[in-house]
Design a protein that fits this description.
The structure is a homodimer. Chain A is built from 5 helices and 10 strands, in the order E-E-H-H-E-H-E-E-E-H-H-E-E-E-E. By secondary structure, chain A is an alpha+beta fold. In chain A, the strands form 3 sheets. Chain A has a 5-stranded mixed β-sheet with strand order 4-3-5-6-7, with helices on one face. A two-stranded antiparallel sheet of chain A has the order 1-2. In chain A, strands 8-9 form a two-stranded antiparallel sheet. The interface between A and B is large, with 74 and 74 residues. Strand 10 of chain A pairs antiparallel with strand 7 of chain B.
């Protein structure tokens, strides 16, 4: 029988929250939910849950909606590795479970297989409902998991000494050098002159 | 008179959503809300809003709650620069507004000043309500902004060719080399043997 909840949340509610937060109904966030449920169940209850996402695409938003870990509270870290995988771990005990989408598990699930293998090219997509039904029927068949240990928590707990940049006067972490990264030339923007 | 809304959201509702999502009432997310409101107002309405946060701390969660831009949908980018600043921009026109907390604007706001200057050391914090009242009274006095242009959208729109790693069999972006980053040695975890 098709599952009705993911991480204790009613699937229909999760899909609505997905649209509100993420902007659209994302197959990756649905599979992400299955991965998070699998990992956290295997890890067991902990008040010290942290998550590492190994891709910037979709998966971080599943973590942010289904766990207490967000980007801004520091309990979710994201690596731009392009791997559809995540690790849930206890930041106190430093043990965790890494969960990943297993390509071998996609046989028999043609819509998921097609979704996962596409390289981002725009082509006709199946209706979300059809893909979702496949995901919910497949559940844990899609994924593999393994117990892991982290050498240290990825969240830096030490205070970061800050000061004011002598060039732009803004506050920055002193470990970056005598001026902030922007004033060292790492800018992503150009000033519009005469438009303060 | 003290403001009652931030980015069109009732302040009391925003604080509740902050606790639910971020886990606690964050002065940084309140100031972040003022910054986002200032930047988006100056930028003007656009269906193509993107945001760059220049710190990983708190500010990204303000963006995710108050704009359609999230980490997982790719419309919010985060730089680990340790600067309490963000840029809202139109990803189509590539013009934007950079907004930052201006240390010179903190005079006359002792609680905000103390919050901003602390280096993360644990010490007695003022009640959130007192700090929040100062932030809401200060509003745009706390920040500076400037029009900027981006040379290009930070979100990569091109398809990323992927393949299967010959070592771990997982999918990864081929541009990273003949094997995935984890199999190249960039691991943050140790395998627990005998625990597949």
């Amino acid at each position: 029988m098709q599952r009705k909840t993911i991480c204790g949340v009613d699937v229909a509610s999760y899909v609505i929250r997905m649209e509100e937060f993420h902007g659209y109904r994302s197959p990756g966030m649905l599979i992400g939910g299955v991965m998070i449920e699998n990992g956290t169940t295997r890890l067991g209850p902990t008040p010290y849950l942290n998550v590492v996402c190994e891709t910037v695409v979709c998966l971080p938003d599943a973590v942010q909606l289904l766990t207490p870990c967000t980007f801004g509270n520091g309990f979710m870290q994201v690596l731009d590795w392009g791997k559809f995988a995540l690790t849930v771990y206890d930041r106190d005990r430093l043990d965790g479970v890494r969960v990943w989408l297993n390509p071998d598990g996609l046989n028999g699930y043609p819509l998921i297989s097609d979704w996962f293998r596409r390289t981002g090219a725009i082509r006709e997509k199946p209706p979300f409902e059809d893909l979702a039904a496949e995901v919910l029927a497949a559940g844990s068949n899609l994924i593999s998991s393994r117990r892991v240990r982290l050498p240290r928590s990825l969240k830096d707990k030490n205070p970061v000494p800050t000061g004011f940049c002598p060039e732009c006067s803004e506050s920055y972490p002193l470990r970056q050098g005598p001026s902030c990264l922007a004033c060292q030339g790492h800018v992503y923007y150009e000033m519009q002159e005469g438009s303060l």
